[in-house]
Every structure is written in C-alpha cells, then in structure tokens.
Amino acid sequence: MNEERLRICYVADLGSFLARRWISYFARRGHSVTVFSPPIRSGQAPTFGPGTKPGRPSHPSVAEAELPDVRIHTLFRRPGMPKLIQLANVFSLHRILRASRPHVLHAHYVRIYGWIAALTFFRPLVLTVWGGDILEDQGAFADLLGRKLTPFSLKRAALVTGHSTFLKQRVIQIGKPESQVHLVGCPGVDRKLFRPGVRTDAIRRELGLQGTRIVLCTRIMDTVYNTETILRAIPFVLKEVPEARFVFSQYLARPPYVEQMKDLARELSIKDSLLFLEEIPFDRMPLFLNLAEILVSIPDSDSGMPQTVLEAMCCGTVPVVSDLPQYQDLIIPETNALVVCPKDPMAVADAILKLLRDPVLRERLSEACVNTTMYCVDYETEMQKMEKFYYELSGI
Predict the structure, then answer these.
(1) What does the alpha-carbon distance between residue 68 and residue 20 come to, in Å, rounded to a whole number?
(2) I need a surface site. Which of 3, 57, 122, 209 has the fewest CB within 10 A?
(3) What confidence tens digit (pLDDT) does each residue in 114-139 have?
(4) What is the pTM of this model?
C-alpha cells in the first residue's frame, strides 16, 4: 500500500452517522481530512450554534469526538432555504479547496452536496450516491435543479460509488459509464461489534424486559417506513404472543409524527407493549440486535440493503422486510428473511408470529443470516477498497 498520506476533502453531512464512520476511517489512517458540512440538524445530537467560527462546533459534540483530527468547515444550510441560494456554498468550497489543496474531492449524496462539489469544477471528483438523491420514486428529479444538476454532477465525477447493485444500475441508466461506477459498502459492518452471542442480561434488566420476546423497529418513524402498518399489526401478534414487546427508535423522526403514532398506540390499546427510545447509540446497537429475535423494516422504497438490516443479519437477528428489488443482493425470502407487503398489517403480523412460534424456523433463518453476511460488507475491507480508489485517482 502506498505510504504517502492523502489530502481528502469531503462535502458531507456530519449529522449522518454513516458519513462520520466513512470519514473517520481515513482520519485514523493518518490522511489529512477536511470536511465541508452543514450545521447538524435538530435531532442529530451535535449542533452548531449561532456565531460559531467555521470549523469549530459550538460545544463538544459527536462530530468532535469521532473526528478529533479533522478540519470541519460549516456549509450554510437551513430548513426551507431555497436550493438555488444553497448553491452559493460553491464560493466557500472554492476557498477551502485552495487552502487544503486536496488530492481528491468527495461528496456524499448528489443533491446539494454533489452539486456544490461539481460546480467547483475540481478534479478528481468522487460522488457517493445514497438513494434518495438519484431515485425518482424518492423525488430526486421532481425539481428543475435535480433534473439539470444531478446528471451534470454525475458526468463531472471521475468515480461514482454506491452500496448496492440496484443503485449502481440506476447510475448507469442515468448515463454514467459502467467502468466509472463501483460498489462500495456504506461503510460496511464492523463484525467485531455486530456478531451473535453478545450477552444481553444487563440491558434486559435495565429496560425491564425480563421474560419478554423482543421485536425491534429501528428505521426512522415515518410514513415511508410504514410505522403505522407495524403498529396496526401488533394487536394481532399480542393476541397469540402476549409477552411480545416492540422497541421503536424515535431518532430523526418528526415529533408530530411520533405523537401521532403514540396516539395510535393508545387507540389500539398496545401502549404497554411498546418501548419508544429517543435514540439507540451505535455502541449499544449490537446489544439491542442480540436482544431482539426479529427486526422489522418495511419501507415503501429503499436505496439498497439498509445498514440496520445488514447489522441485524450479522447478529443473527431475523429481518422481516418489504418485497423490494433493492434487497436482491442479500435477501433470500424464506431462507434468511421473511418478505411482506409493507401496507398489509395482517401480513406483517403473520410473519412476526411465524418466527415467534417456530423456534426451528427462526434458528434456521438466523444461522443463514450470519452465513450470508460472513464474507461481504466488512467495514475494514470496504474502506480499504475506497482508499485504493483514492490513490489511483490522485496519481500518487
């Protein structure tokens, strides 16, 4: 491996845990890393306060803790700000590029971040697509800027990465040559953490879940993730397995929608069988996944295999998922997961009950989950692959 250190500039949202995981790898490797990030949105833990100098959060934050050696510059972006005005960030990024003289400029998410990076005309440019930035059913081309600047940005990029075959094919359909599009896990799974057999006695006691059967629902609470469908399935599950408990994460969810779901839980008389958590920290997620027998993830649309589902499978937690072509890389129905219609509460309830009532089936699928993920999407492997791409593009 080339021993010369790289200078890498990222345009990415540090409010995203996946972006932080990606960037922190290269900082730990000793590369010189600069990030151009918007203020952390409410609900994302770290925040940037009024009057904060570029590059320094207003108080100790997750971003500081995970990225202590990274230079952070603040991209201006506020909720409701017109996209055209946000493109003025191009001038700030120009100044950052002149100061940091990076070997590579890498934008995570094409809309806004990729647009800004592409409009600097810096080379080489790397873009990582995440799904909502290039998928029509998620509104990627609903506006004029999306229809014009997304294809422009993809054309400008020397390399485009995505975390699923589905996304790779979509980028190629938009017009990018296949030779410039590569699969890179986003950012892969750390199997030292996400593995079966993690002891959960303490967390059961802590949460008061002794003697219960746990079903985990950690996707964002929102209509696109069909939280209401899951809630409406629960009474049917409790009728046959009254000791079942459903754990939801409220992380990044809109507060009015969370209250709406809590009202629905009261209406369905299932409130006592639910646990709503503000957030599940990354270092505790392996505990929750080992605690749960089932993970439910039933969005209407997705960009590929969700990180949560990958981590669950690595832990042997059996997923109940939507019937989406995006999952074809890893999901094998009735072999390592159960697939359902995301709008049908009875179908969701039947799948959960099937797993809760049949320990032989659940164990067979659990073992298949671990085996399926054993040789893919490893965090270290995926980031080493990306590092090689950086060196090839930089020419050093």
Answers:
(1) 11
(2) 3
(3) 999 999 999 999 999 998 899 888 88
(4) 0.75
